[in-house]
Amino acid sequence: MTPVRRLLVFLLLLAAPAAARAQGPVKIGLLLPYTGVLSVQGIDTTRGLELSLAKVGGKAGGRDVQVLKEDTEAKPDVGLTKIRKLIERDRVDFVVGPVNSVVALAIRNYVHEQGTPLIVPVAFTRVLTAPPQASPAIFRIVETSDQGNYPMGAWMMKHTKYRKMIVMATDFVAGRHAVEAFMAGYRAAGGEIVKEIYAPLNTPDFAPYLAQAGTTPADAVYAFFPGADAIRFVKQYREYGLWDRLPLTGYNVLTDDTILPALGDAALGLLTVGGYSAAIDTPENKAFVSDYERVHKTWPSRYSESGFDAAQLITTTVEALRGDLSDRGRVRDALKTSLSRIKAPRGALEFDAYRQVICPSYVMRTERRGGRIVNAIVDTIPSVSQEQTWTWWNKK
Amino acid sequence: MTFWAIQTLNGVSFGMLLFLLAAGLSLIFGLMKILNLAHGSYYVLGAYVALSVTAATGSFVVAAAAGTATVVGLGIVMERVFLRRLPHDELPQALLTFGFLLIVGDLSLAIWGGTPQTLPKPSMFEASLRFGPLVFPSYRLFVIGVGIVVGLALWLLQERTRLGAMLRAAIDDADIARATGINVSLLSTGVFAFGAALAALGGIIGGPLLGVYPGADFEILLLAFVVVIVGGLGSLKGAFVGGLLVGLLDNFGKALFPQLALFTIFAPMAIILAVRPSGLFGAR
User: Which of A234, A239, A244, A246 should be substituted to probe chain B, the one whose Cβ sees the most B Cβ atoms within 10 Å?
Assistant: First the structure.
């Protein structure tokens, strides 16, 4: 063999693994809860993600896209085991998840060390994308509890007559953080909080708490209760006749699209703030809702929308890199710039310096429209960044 | 005044619901000394079946009957086919019923999905009643009514009928009861089925208030345990008084000292256990 030919063979050998990698599929690992209380969120996220992939024919950058699902069971220890499996055994290129914040915090250090990009679709704890926890490998496309709740305080002062409010929330970190942010925004705008009432997670009967709210002079209530608690709270709120004196407002978990059918008429008139409603009136959202409804016979939830965006973000990134994901640093850079190029049903999105999404918030009122109960859009609060809401808890 | 009236009514209605949830557990333990961990499953299954049947037929009564019948069927199978093989073996029994709890939970998740749901109320109890400044949901009065009726019926059954006498004899000493010609085996199956029916009724009556969702089985089981421990294992009177006591204490505790909310259900239990380890009406 001549030296030139030897060099050629050597080069071929070097190139072989890279070429083989480029031939194989792009792997997306889903780290979501498929069993237990949060399974609805996991399933909806997956449905949105798969819908988006189906629209591009399951391909990106000339490569097939393969989806691997792992069930976190919403438990931090299980989540850590499963993400290890996805990254070390399956060698996935991207991880999408998790739903709950405790799992997000449990896997944060591992993700940071490994550097495999993690796209967070649902978990909204404020610390995950704020220093010192923010990591170059973590990209979050859902608003933090601050971004959702803080601006609603000023909105309330500007657009309603509520000057004295009661807050009611579930007594664990998500609920406390949500109303804390709302109170900070409301007080900063000149409002007064006259009472704070916290009920434990899984409160079977809200009657004693409602009686306390009923005896306090105030203009309205701002609340945060998730899942089954939300259903009991909103229904009992109506039954005890508090509506006549104290209009109910809150974060959109109260009237989430997934629980609206169970709430029925009890939800009518509720004023909430959140990142997405299936009733958003834009061509992008209408197309998304009708595609989703054709496949699943139901409207998408904000989890479905987030999954849809996560998949779009990944395929756009892979396209931008022409399918070459061998350089982790370039993948992360591409992810960062790709978000503003996708067409998200909820509106324009972009990442801030900490890879936390900057997105619009929607003020909605629950209404009956043509036999269906929907979160009708009342107003749009333009993009709010997490940094604008840091002043009251994170002095950097 | 309004505050106290409302809170008392709340406490009583929650207490009656607790009684319905706990009565079956207590009854089964009393006769068979089986701590039935699948009790929460009966609640969930009764509520889910009732939910499906309501959606199909629109009738609360038909739904209640279907839900109860399904759960009674499960109860009979559990007792005849499985628990029969493990007489007087507490640990295997507990494990077996725990297995049923997990299986029913996962099957329910597969069939009815993970979204929390609530049972619709019978339409006549949709509204709230108003007495001046006092607003109270009529459905809660209905729950109080059902609790009292079931409590009375159970008391009459146990104290005033031949069946009740046989039951009491079997609870006191199963061997002697058998020797006097009482069919304890049949009685056991009957009691197990009846206990399951009571739990299903709890699910159907409680479903519109508490809702039904994955994990509800464990929560209900915990509530039922608290009531049974306070009232005394195996005593129906205990379940009734215990339910009422826990309901009232929990309600007033939460209304007056909201910071202690996690505490109000378990504090009475701890105190009673310290003073009377066998509960208010527990035997021995």
Answer: A239
Is there a contact between A35 and B106 if contact means CB atoms under 8 Å apart?
yes
Q: pLDDT for A367-393, tens place per residue?
A: 999 888 999 999 999 888 898 888 777
Q: Which residues of B touch A39 (CB under 8 A)?
A: 109, 113-114, 214
Percent of chain A with pLDDT over 70: 93
CA B201 – CA A254 distance, rounded (Å): 29
How many angstroms separate the Cα of A146 from the Cα of each of A175, A176, A180, A305, A379?
11, 11, 8, 20, 18
Give the residue from chain A lying closest to B250, CA to CA: A208
**According to CATH, where is 3.40.50.2300 located in chain A?**
3-143+282-359, 149-274
Query: Which structure tokens are listed for B238?
Result: 């205990």
Q: What is the spatial distance between Cα B30 and Cα B25, in angstroms, rounded to a whole number?
A: 9
pTM of the model: 0.85
Closest CA–CA distance from residue A44 to any residue of chain B (Å): 11
Q: Domain A3-143+282-359 falls in which CATH fold?
A: Rossmann fold (3.40.50)
> What is residue A15's predicted lDDT score, i.e. its pLDDT?
52
- Which of B3, B4, B8, B10 has the most A C-beta neighbours within 10 Å, making it the best mutation to test the interface with A? B10
Identity of the residue in B118, B130, B210 whose CB atom sits nearest the CB atom of A204? B210
Domain A149-274 has CATH 3.40.50.2300: yes
